């Protein structure tokens, strides 16, 4: 697969899909859903210029520190963390870039994710301000908040319908602006959901991303996923998100095991290291 990708016989999209599959990610498990990168950082211009490197996200950094000013906070959190019981290793992020709630967050307008979201929120929609209502606002929130580290899902590159409230769900209104949450607000450079998907996919296959995608792959699937390289890259997550970090079979207490399984499922899982 790698050779095919290097020779440009398969697209960046297909290569990422294949890496996800090899690392045990699948559409059939929300807790291990395929993970894709944020690739742009320009969600405000009238036109998207894919020949300008400045419109792209820095793929060599975890999303939590793409904004340089978050790096200090993240580093300090890691250095100052002490578990009195000595069970929990130091970590940079107490949340994860891919988990079930995050998938439902993005796909809330389409079934079965709508129903799953409602079940997760004890029978109703979460409050409007926490809904996925705008792509530019979602990016801005990521830049402002080092605790929000959600990456994307593959649908952002092929499925315009998830950006439209075709089922007319009542998702509430935003507190400050009183704006009703309906279709997802798009970047200015996108004239429709289809246009967004078309340009976003084009960005994924652009020269810039082709040249830098391996840097992000190292963080998610490769050698910067754990160990000293991960520490240096500010890329360490909570211990139980890693494969093999918890030996569930060794837990004899059924309750304890169920609790831990639930935590792992909800929390997010780091892909198998490739």
UniProtKB/TrEMBL annotation:
GO terms for biological process: intracellular protein localization. SUPFAM superfamilies: BEACH domain. It comes from the Eukaryota. Coiled coil: none annotated. GO terms for cellular component: cytosol; membrane. Keywords: Repeat, WD repeat. GO terms for molecular function: protein kinase binding. Residues 1-274 form the BEACH domain. This is NBEL1 protein. It comes from Anthoscopus minutus (Southern penduline-tit).
């Amino acid at each position: 697969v790698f050779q095919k990708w290097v020779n440009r016989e398969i697209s960046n999209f297909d290569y990422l899909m294949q890496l996800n599959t090899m690392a045990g990610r699948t559409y059939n498990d929300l807790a291990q859903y395929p993970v894709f990168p944020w690739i742009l950082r320009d969600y405000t211009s009238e036109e998207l210029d894919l020949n300008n490197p400045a419109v792209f996200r820095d793929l060599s950094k975890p999303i939590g520190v793409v904004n340089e000013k978050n790096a200090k906070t993240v580093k300090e959190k890691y250095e100052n963390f002490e578990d009195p019981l000595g069970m929990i290793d130091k970590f940079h992020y107490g949340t994860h870039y891919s988990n079930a709630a995050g998938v439902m967050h993005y796909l809330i307008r389409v079934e079965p994710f709508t129903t799953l979201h409602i079940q997760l929120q004890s029978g109703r929609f979460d409050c409007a301000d926490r809904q996925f209502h705008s792509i530019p606002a979602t990016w801005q929130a990521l830049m402002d908040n080092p605790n929000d580290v959600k990456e994307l899902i593959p649908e952002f590159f092929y499925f315009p319908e998830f950006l439209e409230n075709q089922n007319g769900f009542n998702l509430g209104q935003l507190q400050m602006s009183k704006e009703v949450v309906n279709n997802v607000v798009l970047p200015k450079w996108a004239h429709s959901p289809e246009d967004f998907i078309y340009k976003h996919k084009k960005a994924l296959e652009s020269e810039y991303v082709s040249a830098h995608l391996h840097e992000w792959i190292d963080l998610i699937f490769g050698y910067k996923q754990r160990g000293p390289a991960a520490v240096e890259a500010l890329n360490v997550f909570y211990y139980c998100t890693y494969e093999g970090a918890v030996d569930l079979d060794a837990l004899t207490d059924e309750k304890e095991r169920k609790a831990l399984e639930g935590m792992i499922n909800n929390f997010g899982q780091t892909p198998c290291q490739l």
